[in-house]
Write a structure and sequence with these properties.
Strand order of the largest sheet of chain A: 4-3-2-1-5
CATH topology of chain A: Hypothetical Protein Ychn, Chain: A
Helix content of chain A: 25-40%
Strand order of the largest sheet of chain B: 4-3-2-1-5
CATH architecture of chain A: 3-Layer(aba) Sandwich
Number of strands of chain A: 5
Number of domains of chain A: 1
CATH superfamily of chain A: DsrEFH-like
Largest sheet of chain B: 5 strands, parallel
Largest sheet of chain A: 5 strands, parallel
Strand content of chain A: 15-25%
Number of helices of chain A: 4
Radius of gyration of chain B: 12 Å
Shape of chain A: globular
Oligomer: heterodimer
Chain lengths: 115, 103
Amino acid sequence: MDHFILVLIKSNPLKSHRPVEAIRIALGLASGEHPVQIVLMDQAPLVLAEESEDLVDGELLPKFLPTFKEWGQTFHVEEESWKALKLDKTEYQVVPISMSRIAKLLQQASRFMIF
Amino acid sequence: MNKKKLGLLLSTSPEHANINTAVKLSTAALSSGHDVYLYLIDEGTKNLPDARLKELKTQGLKLFVCAYGAERHGIEPDDQAVFCGLVVLSDLIKGCDQFISLN
């Protein structure tokens, strides 16, 4: 049975390596049999910013993110974070979503990873 | 008894209380006759030397370590665990009846 995996990233990539590691893990799982949805909250959407040199382990992102772009992977970004961070120039497929929509994604998922 | 497979993912360092949760859940599941698969990833790889994990291995715990995470955190390969990639984690997610992430 394939499981719908929700990877929710809420750690601050300016202070922690965990968001970049979560992107790596999400990529590894998405390359397998499982559908993966990625939700970014708080400061975590900064992993999608054009400039990543200020992020912890930001130099690793170019190894992981282009594959998501190639696959057309959607990044769900909590809409208040999206507005606050003003990341209009991201090259990735982003869908701003409300907290209630995030709650619905949580209901639909059968496996959860929260970083 | 209906034997189940429990998968656990641990990504936090030994200083975090998650290792205690992982040990307690593993102990309870193994003593109930279930199979337990523990995958250490990221800073969770630093828990490999934990004596409680070695003890749980003798009780049947299947222990896996993210090879990438181990290398990044300076964890030397050890016969106690299988050092592997995310494909194994994906297989565990698929194969286990329950899967809990301790992040």
